[in-house]
Amino acid sequence: MYGRSRRFRYKQQRCRWSVSGPQLPVHVFVVEMLGDREPWFLVTTALELSAAQVVEACAARVRQEDGFRDHTQRLGMEACRAWTKEPVQRTFQVQMVALTLLRLLQFRLDQTWGAGNWWHKPEWHPQKRHASIRDLCHLFWQHRTVFSQLLVSLEDMEKTPQAPTQPGNSVSRAA
User: Model's pTM, two decimal places?
Assistant: First the structure.
């Protein structure tokens, strides 16, 4: 889970579950993951998978669900106010680019400062190993005045008219 191997205990029962239809057998697992407070309850129709394979697949899905949560809650996809296909696709594409850039920034910060040195583990989650999109947003919020100044400077540069230069002529500007 999250790139680490963890020990777990489990109980497994093969049964039939009415949601999937009484004719379809399923495996039901109760999994106690060391370090977790609550057990996992897993149901699968993949009868050929071992308990470790089922837990691994569900743990990978947890990371995917984290990504969906980041996309909807942190980047605002749930607030998308478009009802036709094209604006929804554009919004999704822009947000995916933003998410990718945020993750690249996270990796660069981890390389430069070391993982865990630019963000803080919350007291309630001491086993946290990786920064989240929320941690990156918090970092940006801490430096919002610097970003605001940068944006104002860029706007000022755009408003300043650029005089065309001709070969042999030099243009100088006082600051």
Answer: 0.48
